[in-house]
Design goal:
single chain, 178 residues, mainly beta, rod-shaped
Length: 178
Amino acid sequence: MQITIDEEIYPVFAPIGPLCQYSVPPSLPDTSINGITGTWNPGTINTSVAGTFTFVFTPDTGQCALPDTMDITIDPQITPVFAQIGPLCQNTTPPALPDTSINGVSGTWNPDTISTSVAGTFTFIFTPDTGQCAAADTMQITIDEEIYPVFAPIGPLCQYAIPPSLPDTSLNGITGTW
């Protein structure tokens, strides 16, 4: 009688990750690259917590295969940080919205420019470029209504009379120079 002893096979899988926290994870494969079927414990990838997690693959019975493990890393999500813009005065030239956050997250804004033609508070949404573990962010920018200074009238004055000083502050609280 001849007895054949098959060599134990290690299942081979393509690595998964690193993944971004809160991203939609891929499914764990039911079959290895080298044809071993089985199940995973845990059965799904949860990206709600950052860290490195070990997943154990147990081959189905009847295969000369050994269990295997895969470590999957979930990178923490970065929140872009920006210096607050504003408040801005109506009808003034606004600054450009930054392409990159203070902490290095690049992306785009919607809307992509600030308009100061209308007074109010407006929401600008920052969407990070793909490939970064970064969250979208918003910035509220206020455009203050244009205010005209109000002064009490001076005069009429008599010729050669000593005139009063011009006020440094208007009646409605605006400071400036003449």
